[in-house]
Amino acid sequence: MKILSINILSGGCNRREQLLQNIEIINPDVIVLGDFWHSKTTGRGSIPLMNMLKGKGWFHQYYPDKIVKFAVGIASKIPAIRARHVFEEYPDNVIAVEIPFSSDSRSLTVIGAYLPYFPAEEMRPLWEKLYQYLAELDSRKHRFILAGDLNLCRKKEIDDEQYKLDIFEKCCNDFCDIGQQDPKPTYRKKNAYRLDYLISNLEQKQLTGYSVHDSFLDNASDHCGISVKVLSE
Predict the structure, then answer these.
(1) Residue 93 contacts by C-beta under 8 Å, 6 or more apart in sequence?
(2) Which class is 2-230 in CATH?
(3) CA-CA distance, 85 to 43, in Å (whole number)?
(4) What is the pLDDT of residues 50-84, one digit of tens each?
(5) Residue 39, exposed/middle/buried by CB under 10 A (0-12, 13-18, 19+)?
(6) What is the CA radius of gyration of the chain?
(7) CA distance 154 to 147
(8) Which of 112, 151, 165, 166 has its CA 20 to 30 A from that of 79?
(9) Residue 49 to residue 93: CA distance in whole angstroms
(10) Which has more pLDDT, 105 or 129?
(11) Where are the domains of the chain?
(12) Which distant-in-sequence residues (6+ apart) come within 8 Å of 71 by Cβ?
């Protein structure tokens, strides 16, 4: 199973063709789309892009059904066993889809997340809930991969003692930050921990083909896409 995470930038409104072209070349099974917008204006927001993806085989789609910005959406070629908005307080920012994955009937939970570039006082409670959720899945031996653009704070807050990055570092240290050995981390904007990430509790041998897709920077987004292939055994 190949999983792609891409921030489509402001809902991808004027760059749908470029986004679709890049996605088709990568040909993932599951796509996590950050900065998803659901607009009240027909033809705007991310829904037209989702319809284009559906026409190309990503039939199974999960996203907020209300007018919203700064959200996350998931498109998959594989039908989910179940899907849910993980947090009642943040229903648009974290979506989990449980996907059948191996011959022993075990599944993989793909967690799509978009944590916006908001002040730390707004983002830290969501980070804490997200970490607790991952820890709970791990304690139940439930396999997961978290994918998305994960902001913790704004640039001006990075050096402020009260906005320590311990919860962010704990999340990456306790689980597998798939991109930690990336020789070319061009998608990581280190000035504000404004990052696209793939984090998992799978064994390293099950994670292969990690790639950074710089091609998205060519008129499709201001972020690179990142992908990984997950092996079932």
Answers:
(1) 70, 71, 72, 87, 113, 114, 115, 116, 126
(2) alpha beta
(3) 25
(4) 999 999 999 999 999 889 999 999 999 999 999 99
(5) middle
(6) 16
(7) 20
(8) 151
(9) 19
(10) 129
(11) 2-230
(12) 35, 36, 37, 38, 63, 64, 92, 93, 114
- Go through 94-130 and write b for each residue having 16 or more CB atoms within 10 A of its CB, e for each that does not: bbbbbbebeeeeebbbbbbbbbbbeebeebbebbebb
**pTM given for the model:** 0.90
Name the helix (H) or strand (E) containing 172.
helix 166-174
State the DSSP H helix or E strand holding residue 3, giving kind and residue range, or none if neither: strand 2-7
Q: Quick one: which of 13, 6, 132, 150 has its CA closest to 75? A: 6
User: 66 is written with which tokens?
Assistant: 């209300």
Q: Is there a contact between 53 and 19 (Cβ–Cβ < 8 Å)?
A: no
**Separation between Cα atoms, residue 15 and residue 96, nearest integer Å:** 26
The pair of three-digit structure tokens given for residue 30, joined into one six-digit string = 């599951």
Q: Quote the strand ranges of 50-206, DSSP E.
A: 60-62, 68-76, 82-85, 94-100, 107-115, 144-150, 176-177, 195-200
Alpha-carbon distance of 103 to 12, in angstroms, equals 37
